[in-house]
Amino acid sequence: MKTIPFLLLIMALISCRKSEEGTLRVAGLEESVEVVRDPYGINHIYAQNQRDLFFAQGYLAAQDRLFQFEVWRRQATGTVAEILGESELTRDIGTRLFKYRGSMTEEMQYYHEDGIEIIEAYTKGVNAYIEQALESPETLPIEFKALGILPEKWTPEVVISRHQGLLGNIQEELAVGRAVARLGAEKVQSLLWFHPKTPDLTLQEGIDEDGLFEDILGLYEAYRRPVTFRAEHLLEAYRSTPVETALLQRKALNLADRENPRVDSLSIGSNNWVVAGGRMANGKPLMANDPHRRIAVPSLRYMVHLVAPGWNVIGGGEPEIPGVSIGHNGFGAWGLTVFETDGEDLYVYDTHPENPDQYRYEGQWEEMEIVQETIPVKGKEPHTATLKYSRHGPVVFEDTLRHKAYAVRCAWMEPGGAPYLASLRMDQADSWEAFRKACTYSHIPGENMIWADMDGDIGWQAVGIAPVRKDFSGLVPVPGDGRFEWADYLPIAEKPHELNPQRQFIATANENVTPDSYTHWDAIAYSWADPFRGRRIQEVLSGENPLTLEEMKQLQTDYHSLPARELVPYLNSLELSGRSAAARDYFSDWDYTLAPNAIPPAIYVAWENEIRKGAHSRFVPEEAQEILSSLQLERILQWIREPDAVFGSTGSRDAFLQDTFDTAVEGLTQRLGDDMSEWRYGQKALKHTAMTHPLSDALSGAYKKGLDLGPLPRGGNGYTPGSTGNNYRQSSGASFRVIIPVGAWDEALGMNSPGQSGNPESPYYGNLFELWAQDAYFPMYYSRDSILKYSDSREFLQPQ
Fold first, then answer.
1. Are the C-beta atoms of 716 and 709 separated by less than 8 Å?
2. By Cβ atoms counted within 10 A, which residue in 67, 441, 583, 713 is the most buried?
3. Long-range CB pairs of 565-571, under 8 A, 24+ apart, other chains included
């Protein structure tokens, strides 16, 4: 591996300098660890050995996110009902049903050659902080006091849990199967925007169509839901009153996205790109990444700088996982977006009429494996759960009336299926070849990994464990009788990849980026996000002039709408009158940017929402409207471009566009009043952001102060590179962003809203929220001189 400049100097400084701000004794450390915290909340950790480095990462992350850690631990271990009661029992059963039950030695060592040491050290660091916190429970964050609980110790099993991973498409698979049962395969394929290579969706013999409408995925969906807290979960002194609860419910109703109830799940995605030095004004490659996930407080992401012999990596990941998932190491920079990978299948079995624990496979009756677990339940006796497994995986539902059983086969149950942990190998990559090899260990989620380095290389490697299906699509449930098996897993190195393309950039945004010439379509997903973000990014990167860092900032937060650019010109040929004609006039010199505090985007987005709702109502038969709850906008635009096929004529299409525009204008009038000059995008009633603490709605007013953040105006929507979701109160988007010019490491920029800490009493709890809402950045310092120059605090963790 290439040596990291100034590392030996750093180690010498650690050994001889004394802290100017104090020391803290921590049991479990082997040597002194220096921690420098910058004004943006990032801990720069300087350790003298690898074990102490990850021990300190766990210790400091737990210090910042203790309640988030406790919720994660309970989700991972299936013990939420122990603190919240019987209502969470289904969640805990689902968690235990989908628990990883393989060899922990094989599992931990998969992620790094020193995986056992790293994960165990991280876990011990978490526990060291928990031990200290328990010595003074009165100082615990308010969440523990309100719930009347204490944090509990971690084990490596918590770190490798898959409970919060981006896992697969099983819910889509069941929905498509149900739609086919109602409408037929051909009709469903005409409505949904699948890749042209999609195989036939016909349901196979042995699938009971009516049975598909049972609550088959109840256990799966229960354990995947975020934990929510209600007043009855809290100690009485902390509970909101009935009056407060009523006001909160009314507030929630007012903020509800009534104009757009069907939010396309595939609008939640990410952007990334790498640009070769030849396209950049400074002549150096650049990497940019902004993953889009649920907007929440505390943030899903956590930033850190890890320095020790063999390590000098800075960036972000999930706080409960060691290492860095997105960032740079002084040689290369890397990022990720979701590469749609179908790693789940729903199998349907015939069960024995007299013994439901037996299922039919290849003409023989096989016994299910049965595991029993005891689950503690607050206020109740412990519950004994009976968990069943077929040869394919966890049995999620048994239909005793029809003598059927359903199991989910999960590729992510293989060793190496913990989200993002394979980043540990990427953190030390010192060439494109080393990075690509590290990528071959990344099983979930399916991702577009991009890379830019000091040698001038830019590259892309799709990752994710991908089953090879020879005889079926994976888009609908199949019989589990042996006819529809996975042939193998596709080697990750054989997934799509690219190095130094002639266009001098690589960009992905969850759209289909697989070349038509690719041959392994039997292991590639067939459904993708709408292509608008990706097309806009490629449009900007394909320009003639050299690109600057400032332009990369503008692109990452770009609110230019390609759908608006296509749809608005249709208005010119419509016979609009009255208020609709007046509204159209606002588009006369609009640049199709969904900017806050502007009138045209307010009108356009209301119209776009009505187009989506209107198309759904018109083209999805009534019996399938709840099953296919939304249509992708690209599919609707295809129908608008070629109206004869679906609308029947250009006139019918124009009538549809006019009706939806009239409806949008009338809706804005009712919502905002007659004065169109007040219809401004970004106001609270139209497009805003607000971050609500998980306990906020349950806590009494006396304890709520400072927990919630916002509202603040926002721009964009789910189809702009600066993605803010397709609802009026932003619920998804890029709370975390990085832009990294290779070689100019101290010029790297970052954002992690609302702040690094999850403790409402910390100065780093919401300090980044307003900067983020304004689409601003902070400097992501890497050199020791810069870190010390701009530090907020400096502390030594000393062995006890």
1. no
2. 583
3. 565/592, 566/637, 567/604, 567/607, 567/608, 567/611, 567/637, 567/640, 567/657, 568/592, 568/604, 570/640, 570/654, 570/657, 571/657, 571/661
Asked if 368 contacts 361 with a C-beta cutoff of 8 angstroms, the reply is no
Q: Cα separation of 480 and 463, whole Å?
A: 27
Three-state secondary structure of 443-478? CCCCEEEEEEECCCCEEEEEECCCEEECCCCCCCCE
Cα distance between residue 658 and residue 653, in whole Å: 9
pLDDT exceeds cutoff 70 at 74: yes
The pLDDT value given to residue 16: 33
Residue 144: what are its φ and ψ, rounded to 5°? -65, -40
Pair type for strands 478-479 and 344-352: parallel
Q: Strand, coil or helix: what is 182? A: helix
Indicate if the pLDDT at residue 13 is higher than 90.
no
Does residue 490 contact residue 509 with C-beta atoms inside 8 Å? no
CA distance 518 to 715: 37
DSSP 693: -
Size (the chain), residues: 800
Mind listing the pLDDT tens digit for each residue in 726-746? 999 999 999 999 999 999 999
| Burial label, 412 (beta-carbon count in 10 A; 0-12, 13-18, 19+) | buried
- Of 221, 239, 223, whose CA–CA distance to 148 is shortest? 239
Instruction: Give the H/E segment covering residue 688.
Output: strand 688-691
Is the whole-model pTM more than 0.90?
A: yes
Tell me, what's the pLDDT at 522?
Answer: 80
The single-letter code of the amino acid at 614 is G
Three-state secondary structure call for residue 270: strand
Joined together, the tokens standing for residue 299 give 């943030």
Q: Is the dihedral of CA 221, 226, 231, 235 positive or negative?
A: positive
Amino acid at 673: G
Burial class (CB in 10 A: 0-12, 13-18, 19+), 496: middle
For 614-651, what is each residue's pLDDT tens digit?
A: 999 999 999 999 999 999 999 999 999 999 999 999 99
Q: How many other C-beta atoms are found inside a 10 Å radius of the C-beta of residue 586?
A: 18
164-213 confidence digits (pLDDT tens):
888 889 999 999 999 999 999 999 999 999 988 888 999 999 999 999 99
3-state secondary structure of 404: strand
- Out of 8-12, 105-109, 503-507, pick the least confident: 8-12
pLDDT at 261 over 60: no
348-392 pLDDT tens trace: 999 999 999 999 999 999 999 999 999 999 999 999 999 999 999
CA distance 348 to 359: 10
Q: Which amino acid is at 428?
A: Q
Q: How confident is the model at residue 516 (pLDDT cuts 50, 70, 90)?
A: confident
Rounded mean pLDDT of 96-115? 97
Give the DSSP H/E element, type plus range, for residue 37. Answer: strand 33-37
Q: Going by C-beta distance under 8 Å and a sequence separation of 6 or more, which residues neighbour residue 784?
A: 6, 9, 10, 13
Residue 464, both tokens: 């994710």
Task: Please state the φ and ψ torsions of residue 339, each to the nearest 5 degrees.
Answer: -105, 110
DSSP 210-234: GGGGS-TTHHHHHHHSPP---GGGS
Pairing of strands 302-308, 43-46: parallel
Q: Which amino acid is at 279?
A: R
Copy the structure tokens of residue 349.
């079995």
pLDDT exceeding 70 applies to what percent of the chain? 94
Instruction: Quote the CA–CA distance of 395 and 710 in Å, as a whole number.
Output: 43
Residue 213 CA to residue 178 CA, distance in Å, equals: 7
Whole-angstrom distance, CA of residue 607 vs CA of residue 43? 45
CB 489 within 8 A of CB 545: no
Question: Residue 610 pLDDT > 60, yes or no?
Answer: yes
> For residues 97 and 219, is the Cβ–Cβ distance under 8 A?
yes
